[in-house]
Amino acid sequence: MYDQLLLFLDHAGREFGPALPGAGAMPPRERYAPIADSASGRWDNRPYFVDALAHLQQVVVSSPYRSVTGSALCVTLTIATQRDGHTVIAGADLDWRRLVDAAPTSL
How many Cα atoms are found within 13 Å in the side-chain-facing hemisphere of 100? Predict the structure, then answer.
């Protein structure tokens, strides 16, 4: 499972530019290697993509879901903005377990 994977999507949900692994990134498990490269992915049907387009300039947080490249749960943060007249969606995948472990036990 990766932690803090950053990716950039166009208005059609296609990735452009390389995805950037975060400091906590781990290589995908061998069985997921054939689908580990997200560059050819289509993200326009993902709720976090649709929600980001519906709420321009606002950070959208997905519900936890099982990552396609591992067995851990993750959440995706996305934001849609305009750059040079084009819609750009930036997204970051975070390891849900690490977020839960870092949360205070009482408020």
Answer: 8
The radius of gyration computed from the CA coordinates of the chain, to the nearest angstrom, equals 14
Instruction: Note whether residue 65 is domain-resident.
Output: yes
Full-model pTM: 0.74
C-alpha span between 105 and 47 (Å, rounded): 29
**How buried is 83 (Cβ within 10 angstroms: 0-12 exposed, 13-18 middle, 19+ buried)?**
exposed
For the chain, percent of residues with pLDDT exceeding 70:
69
Contact between 18 and 48 under an 8 Å Cβ cutoff? The reply is no
Contact of 54 with 44, CB cutoff 8 Å: no
Euclidean distance between CA atoms 72 and 98, whole angstroms: 10
Residue 56 has pLDDT above 90, yes or no: yes
Q: What string of DSSP letters covers 29-79? A: PGGGGGG--GGG-B-TTSHHHHHHHHTTTS-EEPPPEE-TTSSSEEEEEEE
| CATH number (domain holding residue 55) | 3.30.450.20
